[in-house]
Design goal:
By secondary structure, the chain is an alpha/beta fold. The protein has helices spanning about 20-30, 65-75, 95-110, 135-155, 185-210, 225-230, 255-260, 275-295, 315-330, 365-370; strands at about 30-35, 75-80, 90, 95, 115-120, 160-165, 220, 245-250, 300-305, 335-340, 355, 360. The strands form three sheets. Strands 1-2-5-6-7-8-9-10 form an eight-stranded parallel barrel.
Length: about 375
């Protein structure tokens, strides 16, 4: 008989928070879940039925039953990653009607269950679409503006239960600087400034679409969604036409040697202990820095990707990790969205908490750790 799993309930001293509508809204989001590697999947070649790109990365179609299972498990927010570039045409990047219809269908699954819902542009980081170097930034700004104009028009009558997120991990993909952490490098500094311009194009396009977009909550990010990318002096929050409607997003898979696949990192570990500085300090460092630069100024922060893969059935360590992550973020006025990429048939690199085929919960204690500590 296996060792009994324990779900810690953690309480940390709450940091002082600025009170405004956006900060309160993020607290209401509580804890979220990503339906990853589905609508953001990219096919090597377009299938006969365009919308079948959704199944290109080993996951079945998203169903109402899956979203209801996520809701019933206690999650309050769902993030829907979407890749758009395989579904656009022409110089104005016109989104196909079939793709937009499918996106709306999945959004409605979430909205109908009163889940706060984040919709984004995801794996569109490509020199033909979104790329933050000086050579391609004009085209990237046009892509961002055109695509978000269409999305905003499609959802203009949806209330602020629906959030829009500008970009996902914008970076110099395919270069040695792709995951660079030295923000003094000329090309990286240029990329940060170009991402600022893309965030601004996103905000402008959504606001200009009218309807409920005029006051919708909008989520923006920096280079590679890394905390370093928004701490650098070159990063700027976009200007907005309304107050307290912008949210900053970062991703956090730290400590990386615990969060990722065993083969992904040297010095790997399958252990996470709540009283171990090597386990918790990488998380604390990000939370503290984001809090100090943004939250203290009334700019809310969400961590809309975090999580850890299974390693040698290390479920108790993953419970500890998720409990700590949720509780420490909450103490700083932030919230988390767990990254679930499904693909349970490929366990070695799966973050899955649900079986996408059956909508069954795979790790109830991990989910409980997230819920009770948020």
């Amino acid at each position: 008989m296996g060792k009994e799993l324990k779900v810690p309930v953690l309480e940390f001293k709450k940091k002082e928070l600025v009170e405004n509508e956006a900060m309160a809204f993020v607290r209401e989001m509580k804890i979220g879940w990503n339906v990853g590697n589905s609508l953001d999947a990219v096919a090597r070649s377009m299938p006969e039925k365009e919308t079948d790109t959704e199944t290109a990365w080993h996951n079945p179609l998203i169903t109402k039953e899956l979203i209801k299972a996520v809701k019933d498990a206690g999650f309050k927010t769902i993030r829907i990653p979407v890749s758009w570039h395989q579904h656009v045409s022409g110089e104005d990047f016109i989104v196909s009607r079939a793709w937009m219809k499918r996106i709306r269908e999945v959004v409605d699954y979430c909205i109908d269950l009163d889940l706060k819902t984040i919709l984004n542009t995801h794996h569109d980081i490509n020199k033909e679409f979104i790329y933050p170097d000086n050579e391609h930034t004009a085209n990237a700004e046009r892509f961002v503006a055109c695509v978000w104009k269409q999305i905003a028009e499609e959802f203009k009558e949806y209330d602020d239960t629906l959030l829009f997120e500008s970009l996902n991990e914008p970076r110099l993909a395919g270069t040695p600087l792709e995951w660079e952490t030295d923000y003094t490098i000329k090309e990286v500094r240029e990329a940060v400034r170009n991402i600022n311009a893309m965030n601004q194009a996103f905000v402008n396009s959504v606001r200009e679409a009218g309807g409920k977009n005029r006051e919708r909550y909008l989520v923006v990010t920096g280079y590679a969604d890394a905390v370093e990318g928004v701490l650098t002096e070159d990063f700027e929050m976009p200007k907005d036409t309304v107050e307290n409607r912008l949210i900053l997003n970062i991703h956090m898979y730290r400590p990386v040697r615990f969060a990722f696949d065993e083969e992904f990192r040297e010095n790997k570990t399958d252990k996470f202990e709540i009283d171990d500085p090597e386990s918790i300090e990488p998380i604390n460092d990000v939370i503290d820095k984001a809090y100090e630069k943004f939250v203290t100024k009334g700019i809310p922060v969400i961590i809309d990707e975090m999580g850890a893969v299974d390693k040698n059935d290390n479920t108790q360590s993953r419970i500890n990790y998720n409990a700590y992550h949720a509780a420490i973020a909450k103490s700083a006025g932030m919230m988390n969205c767990y990254w679930d990429n499904g693909s349970v048939d490929r366990k070695a690199d799966s973050f899955a908490l649900f079986d996408r085929k059956t909508a069954k919960v795979l790790y109830p204690e991990i989910i409980e750790a997230l819920i009770v500590n948020s």
